[in-house]
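Project standup — Tuesday

K.O.: blocked on the structure for the chain from last sprint. Re-posting the sequence here as requested.
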Amino acid sequence: MKMKTASRFSASAIAALLGLVLAITVSAADSPKRLLIVGQGSDGHPPTTHEFMACARVTDELLKPYKDIQATVVKADEPWPDGPKLIDQADGIVMWVTQGAQWMQTDAQRYSALKRLAARRGAIVALHWSVGAKDAKYIQGQLDLLGATRGGPQRKYLVLPTELKRVVPDHPIFRGIGDIKVYDEIYYALDRLPGIQPLFTARIEGKDEMAAWSWERPDGGRSFGFVGLHFHANWQLPQYRRFVVQGIRWSLGLPIPTTGVKIDIDSKQLELNGVLPPPAGPDSEKNAKKSTPARQ
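H.V.: unblocked you, prediction finished:
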């Protein structure tokens, strides 16, 4: 009798434990992804370019309709002592920073936190000058987490009218997105790891140069990089907005509708100092020098 009672108790305990594990798993799956959006203040570029805090706020605004993402915007000018703790609390990071490869590695604790984020399959997203650094010594550290970067003597960039051509049109990030004609600054001749997937290319100096990529990392997480958005005005392009939002969602492992996400936004959210920047073009930077820097 005692053995039967013990067996019944063991079976009940196991069933209860399995139910608890299942409940916790379902709860975790239903919880929104915690996304850290990191921006910085002016890096000396003319106003309306490299407006990284404004870019961080636009990114946050575009993600607000999606309840499966809980975004937090922070300003990460040096020093940033809270950084490692905030990264450890996140499921993903979006970087709008200057010399991103250097920024990731300047603080050893910050870089360790980013490696922990990657190890738990977190999303790592780098946009514009968040890709690369002036010093080549930072190349490998960013390559290991992002899949591509730039630095040292091979650091090349051009401001030009170009057409961003899709390499893999059926990639989920490209849902609702075609090739994009744009005036922008493009970094090119990037260092890259085997296994990354080029997304957009731009024709530069007779070659199709990678301008965006995705990477399903060996640790099971995902990374996404895009070197465009030098000009704040390019947020006015619906396909640019969709590309950034869908790149973030893909990196977080979240679904993307077959027709693409909605990316409507009040144009006031794209203003700098209450003024909507004119479309990017050959005179953009010359005119920008006459402008007032945006609120940081």
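K.O.: great, moving the ticket to review. The chain has one domain: 32-288. The chain is about 30% helix and 25% strand.
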